[in-house]
Amino acid sequence: MQLVVGRIGRPHGVRGEVTVEVRTDDPELRFAEGMAVATDPASAGPLVVESRRWHKDVLLIAFEGVHGRDAAEELRGTMLVIDSAEVESSDDPDEFHDHQLIGLAVETVSGEPVGEVTDVLHHGQDLLVVRRRGQDDALIPFVKALVPEVDLTGGRLVVDPPEGLL
After folding, report:
1. I need a labelling partner for 122 at 20 to 30 A (CA). Which of 5, 17, 101, 138 fits?
2. Pick from 159, 60, 55, 48: nearest CA to 112
3. Cβ–Cβ under 8 Å, residues 61 and 17
């Protein structure tokens, strides 16, 4: 399974640098100079990091063979991906990676089926997007009080939603 670690944004300057929306906790490792990064779509890569720098909290990357603003513009919107097998497991039992949560069945503490986790959003706090049959998706804050149990081996997570959340 592929995990998105960044998304290429607009070109920066005229020499081929691009802005990168970082979606990894370790950009120094994932975007180290000389590192080949797979892409989605695959036809755009792999891209090899020639240089990287931070400018006003924005990561700027120059890729080998990408010279000039036009070449950089062609990469806009390209996702930078890694194989989920490359991600080390955490020693913290309450820490999960998005790919571990997506696809889990969701049920209430009383055992009532709710749906399936289809995405994890990171907007100030983590939100689970849960697809429900015949209803709109539910957004459930991913906090211990509302999600008391995550059973990866059993393929499910348990929610204790306050009234009105679902």
Report:
1. 17
2. 159
3. yes
Model pLDDT, residue 92: 54
For 108-130, the three-class secondary structure string (H helix, E strand, C coil) is ECCCCEEEEEEEEEEECEEEEEE
Distance CA 90, CA 94 (A): 9
- Structure tokens that stand for 126 in this block: 């983590």
Beta bridge partners of 16: none
- Residue 59 pairs in a beta bridge with 20, 54
Identity of the residue numbered 146: L
- Take residue 101 and report the two structure tokens written for it: 């949560």
Tokens of 55: 């400018």
Q: For the segment 67-110, what is each residue's pLDDT rounded down to a tens digit?
A: 999 999 999 999 998 876 666 655 555 667 777 888 999 999 99
Collapsed DSSP state (helix, strand, coil) of residue 4: strand
Neighbours of 8 (CB within 10 A): 24
Could you identify the residue written with the tokens 């399974």? 1
Does this model's pTM top 0.85? My answer is no
Q: DSSP for 14-65, please give it.
A: TTTEEEEEE-SS-HHHHT-TT-EEEEESGGG--EEEEEEEEETTEEEEEETT
